[in-house]
Amino acid sequence: MDDTEAGAVAGLVKIVTLPYGVGVIGTTVEATRRAKDLLKVSWYGSSKASSYTSAERLDAYTALARNADRTGVAMRSTGDAMAAIAGADRVIEATTAAISSTTRPWSR
After folding, report:
1. Distance CA 86, CA 2 (A)
2. What is the pLDDT of residues 3-55, one digit of tens each?
3. In-domain check, residue 13
4. Are the C-beta atoms of residues 80 and 87 closer than 8 Å to each other?
5. Is the dihedral of CA 71, 18, 46, 3 positive or negative?
6. Residue 24, domain extent
7. How far apart are CA 48 and CA 14, in angstroms?
8. Which of UniProt's keywords are assigned here (predicted)?
9. Is residue 19 part of a domain?
10. Read out DSSP for 85-99?
């Protein structure tokens, strides 16, 4: 991995090597995306990351989300969302997706 150019991005905190990828930590999403785009990474053929793409990850997560047989763990439960949707005069559906970016709150 060559992180020379990525390391010069304003707002970059740290680049870390992970067992199956590379982590980019920064003060803003824009800084981490810019640094990620500047990283030069060569994967070994035997590496699990060698055939991994963000688009494939998005497809896999989308398939999981669309599977009506799967249930998640509620972080908070207020009211009955399904009943509210069923009784609504109008329902608007939208799908959004973001690939190549995962944000987590952190502190020093």
Report:
1. 53
2. 999 999 999 999 998 877 788 999 998 999 999 999 988 776 666 666 667 77
3. yes
4. no
5. positive
6. 1-43
7. 23
8. Oxidoreductase
9. yes
10. HHT-S----------
CA angle 47, 102, 49 (to 5 degrees): 5
Number of domains in the chain: 1
Domain assignment present for 12: yes
Q: Are 21 and 100 in contact (CB under 8 A)?
A: no
Work out the percent of the chain whose per-residue pLDDT is above 70.
Answer: 80
Tokens coding 78: 């207020």
Element (H, E) at 41: none
**Calpha distance 29→75 (Å, rounded):** 25
Residue 21 forms part of a structural domain: yes
